Amino acid sequence: MPKWVLIVGATSGIARPLAREFAARGFGLLLAGRDLNELETQAADLRVRGRTQVETIAFDAADFETHEGFWHDCLEKCDGDLDGLVLCHALMPPQEQLQDGATAARAMIEVNYSSYVALLNLAGDYYEKRGLGFVAAIGSVAGDRGRAGNYLYGSTKAAVDVVMQGLRQRLAATRVGVLTVKPGPIDTAMTFGLEKLPLLASPESAARDIYRAIRRRSDIVYTPAPWRFIMLIMKLVPETIWKRLKI
Fold it and tell me: Which residues lie across from 84 on neighbouring strands?
C-alpha cells in the first residue's frame, strides 16, 4: 500500500509539479479542489506518469460547513492512513480591489486564512494521535513584512505563518513535520501580468524545494533560497525608515 498525501488546491501552479514529485516516488495522492473535471484530467496524467494511485475529491474552501465531512472523506479514501497534508489554495486579488470595501478582502481572508485554520485544526488532532507524518502550508514572503502594494494579502500569509508556528510547537513531541513554505514570486497564473517581480522562479523549482524540505523535516523553507536573506534584511529595517521606502 502506498503512503498517501492530500494536496488541497491541487490545480494551483505550485501544487501541480509538487504532485508530480510525490507521484514519481510512489506516493498515493488525494487531489482536492473546486474543479473536479480539471482534477480528473490532472489525476489521469499522474497515474500514467507515476504509475501510482490518485483519487480526486471536491473541496470548497469558502464552504466551512463541509470541511469536517471533507476531512473524514479524505481519511476514508486512504483507509485512515494519511501520511501528509499540503495546503496550497489561495486567493490574491489586486490590492486596490481589496481596499475597495470589505467584500473582496473578507472573501480572501476566508480562503487564505480561515479555511487553513479549519483544516489545520482537524489535521492537528489527527496527527497528534498518529504521531508521524507531515503537514505543509504555502505561505509567502509577503507575510514577512507589510508593503503598501500587497499588505492585505500579506497579512493572511503572516497569519498562516503564526498558526504553523503554534502547530509546530504543539506537535514537537511527535514525529510529525510541520513545514511553512515561503515562496517569492512564482511564474504561475496568480502572478501573471504583474510587473517588476524579482527572482521570478518556476513552479517546478519551487516544487523541488518544497519536496526536499518535507523529506528533511525542515520547519521553514524559502524558495528560491535567496529570499531567506532578502527578507531577513527587510525585517531588520526600522519602521521609521521602512514606511518611507518605495518597494
Answer: 5, 134
